[in-house]
Amino acid sequence: MSTETNELILKSQYYKPASTLTKVSDLIADYLSFLGVSDAFVLTGGCVVHILDSLDKKLDINVIPVQHEQSASMAADSYSRVKKHLGLAIATSGPGATNLLTGVCCSYYDSVPTLILTGQVDSDQLRRNSNSRQIGFQETDVVSIFSSVTKSAVLVDDPKLILFELDKAIWNCFSGRMGPCLIDICDDVQRAELIPDTLKRFRGKPVSNIEFAEKKSSSIIEKFHELTRLSSRPLLVFGAGVRNGNAINAASELIQELNVPFMLTWGAFDLFSHSHPLFAGNFGVTAGRAGNFIVQNADLIIFIGTRLDTHEIGNNRKLFAPDARKIFIDIDPSEVEKFNNSDLFIDLPIIADSKYFIEWVRSNKVLQRMNIEPGWLLFIKEAISTFTPCSEIDRQQPIQVNPYFFMEILNELIHPNTIIITDCGSNLIWTMQGIKVGPKIKRIISAWNHSPMGYALPAAIGALVAAPDSNVVCITGDGGFQINVQEAATIERMGLPLKIFILNNHGHGIIQGTQDQWLNGNHVASNFAGGLPDPDYKEICKAYGIPTVEISNNSELKEKMSMALNRQGATAIIVDMKNGSQIYPKLLAGRPIHEPSPLLSKIELKKFMRFIPENSDLRK
Ligand SMILES: Cc1ncc(C[n+]2csc(CCOP(=O)(O)OP(=O)(O)O)c2C)c(N)n1
Ligand SMILES: [Mg+2]
Predict the structure, then answer these.
(1) Do 210-386 and 7-198 fall under one CATH topology?
(2) CATH of span 210-386
(3) Which ligand 1 atom sits closest to the C-alpha of 480?
(4) Which of 29, 208, 252, 492 is surrounded by the fewest CB atoms within 10 Å?
(5) Which residues lie closer than 8 Å to 546 by C-beta, 6 or more apart?
């Protein structure tokens, strides 16, 4: 749990409820305003009009109407990521609530603290334990639906419990591994009047690192020494838990102190500049070749705040860095325990908060400077400079725009203070393979783990609301753009100067790649021939009042992109890419992550697996 997040929990505890008769919806608005919540993403409905009315009367809270509840929860999600504050989404009962689900999943799987308020039918119209499917109109069992994707989901059918549940939700959002919480509030509860300072409150116990700190520390130090003593090719890997735990500075100091190369997962890709001399890239199923060679050649890897999902380590866990000893630190015990009896052996699993852990390591001198072999740093540099994302062939592509060249030019032209929001599918992967984080890029955000099509557009709205002084660039596929296209109206209505790049490869590109691998290229439902429409995005944007710039080949890319980025207001840049433009290289299922297709020659493979003994499983 981080210092800032602690502050929000503390703040909630300092809230002094009024001693005069107050409407519950006004009390909710007052509580949120006291916490410093300044924006609510909403779509109205019969069961939330009271809450919205009360929020509207609070001068320090903006009520932002979006055009689909999914967008409300996605905008609240990115808002929270950018502002490091509570994201707030509000919807009515029944369909309003169920539409929120995908955005809530994004927050749950990426550990993002958001508060979701849903209106519910009056308490005397609840079906409760009866066998009826529904009693109140648009009644839905929201708590059951959301329980598995929130840290807590509760129904408030008694006005006296509202403060208790608000306190508890804030506590749950920010304590330990963060995440979304939902409060489903009956309409009659919102309308009720009561004296707030008589209400029951909730006080949580601090999540502690005591077990790690006291019981295990001496044996852990010994184990650390044993594992690190023989290492000559160490790597640090930082994940999103480093940001969530406010450990960025601590991690930076750790890198300097140890002089050990570090890698960043997608969720942590914007933590440090990619020009840092010790930056060793990124690894995983859709990473470029360089990072995967690096991680596979390491002999010791310390993972901090990353849960190592299959997208990172590949389907064949046995073949993920088998020659490296592994130290794994995560705040969530279940992420640590999942490796018990798994194919991926962790030499030293530790349950701890990232900042607490790094500070402990530094103050106890647990990790001494390692005896790094000189060839290791040279190897890392060689791999990175050999396998660049954009090739000369990409630059010279004669027709339409090449995605890797697009990313190269975007890196060059991007404005300072930019937040990039990327979507799902090939466009996400091209972005992550091609983007170079430097001083101009403030954040790179996507819904990394849930990865729904359509996240980027509403998330870009949330990001710009959270940081209005930033330049927000949205990168989406044509398919993803369609999913939340209605938010173009929100962007126009709010006058948000977003730059929206629609990477139009005329279909669901990444799925076509999968169909090529498994189904002889039968592109059913993934391109025009397979039944998918290929609409005119210029006309669509025009209808919403969003000006467009069209880029149709590599040679005009630079000039038009520069012009588009310099435009004042919202602009959609429609980038025409080859039908079915693919990611490159691509890992086929079951192969180790350093062997994506097209396969390299045996000689080249040998060169970039040079630290791994011939008899290793990786070389078979
Ligand atoms: C809501 C949702 N539906 C389906 C999918 C499965 N899916 C992942 S990527 C993708 C295609 C995306 O097409 P597009 O946005 O054009 O991206 P491209 O791969 O072409 O860049 C699909 C259908 C998903 N991730 N999310
Ligand atoms: Mg596409």
Answers:
(1) yes
(2) 3.40.50.1220
(3) 15
(4) 208
(5) 488, 491, 492, 500, 570, 571, 572
Give the pair of three-digit tokens for residue 169.
């939700």
- Ligand 1 binding pocket (C-beta < 6 A) is 424-427, 451-453, 477-480, 503, 505, 508-511
| Cα separation values, 471 from 39, 187, 379, 382, 442, Å | 19, 39, 36, 34, 9
> Cα(581) to centroid of ligand 2, in Å?
8
Q: Name the one residue in this structure whose structure tokens are 């009896």.
A: 341
Q: Which residues face 65 on adjacent strands? A: 42
CA 393 to ligand 2 centroid distance, Å: 21
Q: How far is the CA of 476 from the centre of ligand 2 (A)?
A: 8
What CATH architecture is 7-198?
A: 3-Layer(aba) Sandwich (3.40)
Average pLDDT over residues 551-566: 98
Q: Which atom of ligand 1 is nearest to the CA of 505?
A: 20
CA of 481 to the centre of ligand 1 (A): 10
Shortest CA distance to 575 belongs to which of 537, 545, 540? 537
**pLDDT band at residue 5, thresholds of 50, 70 and 90?**
low
Ramachandran assignment for 434, one of left (phi > 0), alpha (psi -120 to 50 degrees), beta (any other): alpha
How far apart are the CA of 504 and the centre of ligand 2, in A? 5
pLDDT in tens, 496-548: 999 999 999 999 999 999 999 999 999 999 999 999 999 999 999 999 999 99
Structure tokens at 285: 């199923």
Domain ranges for the chain: 7-198, 210-386, 403-576
Which pLDDT tens digit goes with each residue over 396-441? Answer: 999 999 999 999 999 999 999 999 999 999 999 999 999 999 999 9
Q: Which of 99, 402, 424, 500 to mutate to test the pocket of ligand 1 (most atoms within 8 A of CB)?
A: 424
What pLDDT does residue 2 have?
45
* Ligand nearest to the CA of residue 514, numbered in listed order: 1
181-238 pLDDT, tens digit per residue, is 999 999 999 999 999 999 999 998 766 665 666 666 778 888 888 999 889 999 999 9
Q: Residue 365 above 90 pLDDT? A: no
Task: Say whether the peptide bond before residue 468 is cis (omega within 30 degrees of 0).
Answer: no
State which amino acid sits at residue 512. Q
Cα–Cα–Cα angle for 334, 106, 68, nearest 5°? 155
CATH 3.40.50.970 is the classification of domain 403-576? yes
Distance CA 6, CA 174 (A): 7
